[in-house]
Amino acid sequence: MQINTPFFKERAHDAMEDKNLQRALGNLKAGFPEKRAIAVSRMPEFEELRNQGRDLKNHVMENLDLYLEQFEAKVIENGGHVHWARTSEDANKIILDICKQENAKTVTKGKSMVTEEIGLNDYLEQNGVQPVETDLGEYILQLRGDHPSHIIAPAIHLNLDDVAEAFHEHHKRPKSDDPAVLMQEAREVLRDKFVAADVGITGANFCVAETGSTIIVTNEGNGDLTQTLPKTHIVVTSIEKVVPTLEDMTLFLRLLARSATGQEFTVYNTLSSGPRREGDQDGPENFHVVLVDNGRSEMVGTELQDMLRCIRCSACMNHCPVYGAVGGHSYGWVYPGPMGSVLTPQMIGIEKGGMLPNASTFCGKCESVCPVKIPLPKLMRHWREDEFEKHLSPKAVRYGIAGWAFLAKRPVLYKTYTRMATWFMKRWAGKKGKIEKMPLAGGWTDWRDMPAPQGKTFMQSWKEQQKAGEQP
Q1: Residue whose C-alpha is closest to residue 274's, from 264, 284, 259
Q2: CA torsion 171→175→177→180, rounded to 10°?
Q3: At a CB cut-off of 8 Å and minimum separation 6, what does 229 contact?
Q4: Which of 455, 387, 449 is nearest to 426 (CA)?
Q5: Partner of 180 at 20 to 30 A CA spacing, among 137, 318, 429, 459?
């Protein structure tokens, strides 16, 4: 996937002008947050589960090497193979080599953000292997030559008429805007793909060290067909997905479904524990797990380690006012929203990804709904500081901060300036109580009105309160 993060502002501007996109994003605002709130209200112990999930993830990160080695040993004991990939290039080459060993011409794929991260589809196509996305949202995007804009609802930026047009163009069937008809059409087309595939590729929501198992959670069942029908099953996942035991896994499943879609539990929760054994009625003959690092191990032991707790539920972006206004594609790479604003600079560099941690109001909603309590605003602030220290911030930002620092170190000047600025903004606002246009603040006032200052400055109010407190 092409990296367009440096053009966040331009892409966000276009997104806010796109009426079809805004209509689609309206469905997000009215959907996931409300369903999550209802699901959480039905579980009195949800807050305690969040604490347990946070603590367990912290424990895993402190012992990551131990649990990964235990997981590898169990996979091998079960008859599978584990491959370690430090980079995207390593991962792609490993997967292609396995496909070549099986003389694979087509592979079916379940939804996997890690395969988006490493650019697997393009790589396979360039090397003569045709990947077929089987998740309905991902399949629609593949037909359109598009990319996901959300990590659990990849086609959330599309409307029903977009889907109908894509199916009509590629399936050569009568155009329909009936969701049931479109769903049946997708089933019929994909059924042959499932049967013909030489290799099936899935991601993994979690990897269980105790048993060497991987699990995928879906609502469509396509993942089951992807990993059981082909001769070879390849799991592509990242190193932080490991958990110690099956019991630990169930803790995260309870957090994940409620945080992601507002469900008590996802429809399909499918464990894979190696290739087909004697007596099994179905399953692959070969089982491979590709563990992708891609910069994650460099986060262990640093301030960014908290980000490795992420279970990819999308709650942060579902509640983010910025994501809700501009959509996922504005972020310009695989991971959008608050979690992407932290993870992307780590993977592609702050030089390219610096726009993203600045695309936040720091309202704190993302942290308040995160099922494992990741301090996302704090981590975005880390990247802002890193960007500033490397002199990568825009000149206007640097000069603005330098000017503020100059005044802040000189209390008399600071008080004088704030009084003057307050008076000026009141006069500018007039009787409307709002500022519609203001020099040097066009980034705000072009899109919304700025509330006019009311009353006295903070320092004036503080001084009065201190005086009042000193009186007998």
Answers
A1: 284
A2: -50
A3: 108, 194, 195, 197, 200, 282
A4: 455
A5: 318
Q: Compute CA distances 346 → 62, 283, 361, whole Å.
A: 19, 37, 21
Q: Yes or no: say if 149 and 167 are a contact pair by the CB < 8 Å rule.
A: no
DSSP code string of 155-211: TTT--HHHHHHHHHHHH-S-----HHHHHHHHHHHHHHHHHH-SEEEE--SEEETTT
Q: Which of these, 182, 232, 67, lies nearest to 174 by C-alpha position?
A: 182
Where are the chain's structural domains? 31-297, 411-470
Query: Which residue type sits at 219?
Result: N
Structure tokens given for 28: 């997000």
Other CB atoms within 10 Å distance of the CB of residue 398: 13
pLDDT digits (tens, 9 = 90+) for 17-49: 999 999 999 888 778 999 999 999 999 999 999
Per-residue model confidence as pLDDT tens digits over 267-276 = 999 999 999 9
Give residue for tokens 């310009």.
332
Q: If we measure between CA atoms, which residue out of 84, 97, 57, 60 comes closest to residue 294?
A: 84
Would you give the distance in Å from CA 51 to the centre of its chain?
21
The CATH H-level (homologous superfamily) assignment of domain 31-297 is: NagB/RpiA/CoA transferase-like (3.40.50.10420)
Q: Which regions in the chain score pLDDT beneath 70?
A: 429-431, 470-472
Q: Which residues pair with 238 in a beta bridge?
A: 292
Q: Which pair of structure tokens corresponds to residue 373? A: 């309590």
Which residue, 386, 390, 391, 361, is CA-closest to 376? 361
H/E stretch holding 238 reads: strand 232-238
Decide: 263 and 228 in contact? Cβ < 8 Å. no
